[in-house]
Amino acid sequence: MGEVSAGYSADKKRNWGKWKSVGIPVLSAVLALGIGSGIGSSTSKGEIEEYQETQLSLESKVDTLEQTRLTVTTELAEVEDERAVLAEKHDAHKGEISELKSKVADLESEVTRLEGELAKAKAESAAAPVPLASPAPAPAPAPAAPSAPSYFANCTAARAAGAAPVRSGDPGYGRHLDRDGDGIGCE
Predict the structure, then answer these.
(1) How many domains does the chain have?
(2) I need a surface site. Which of 3, 8, 17, 37 has the fewest CB within 10 A?
(3) Where is the signal peptide (predicted)?
């Protein structure tokens, strides 16, 4: 029995050696492949979800950028229109400036011409003899004013004669014309 058991154990050792040299690496490879596939598939799903989120984010950014591009394009068109209007105004103002410069030049030449005429007139007047002025005729004597009456019945009569107010010492002054007694009647 010892032989059988010794033979069995030698076969067992030999089989175990085969398993050791072939089976363990194969088993390890199968396990590694299974574990790697499991990890890889879970990583792949995570990466796919991450890529999908990135794609959605990028699509959102593209939409935002497209809206911004449309807004900028619209604003650019408005600015171009405004620039065209301003260019037309600029050209119109250039024409007005040219007209005004022409008018200024015409007015300056007119001023020069008038200054020349003024200088000529001054020279002629300085050279011309000054005529002697004849004396003005004496004014005619004014007619004598009618003499005021020496008595007025009331202030109405004094005013009608042009003598009001009548002072003390004047012809026609009377105490009855001076109410407050200050020496001036019909005030």
Answers:
(1) 1
(2) 3
(3) none
**pLDDT tens track of the chain, all 187 residues?**
445 555 556 566 666 666 566 767 777 777 767 666 655 555 578 889 999 999 999 999 999 999 999 999 999 999 999 999 999 999 999 999 999 999 999 999 999 999 999 999 999 888 876 655 566 565 555 444 445 567 888 999 989 988 889 998 888 888 898 989 899 998 8
* Inside any domain, residue 169: yes
User: Containing domain of residue 169, as a range?
Assistant: 155-185
pTM over 0.70: no
Q: Considering the domain boundaries, does residue 165 fall inside one? A: yes
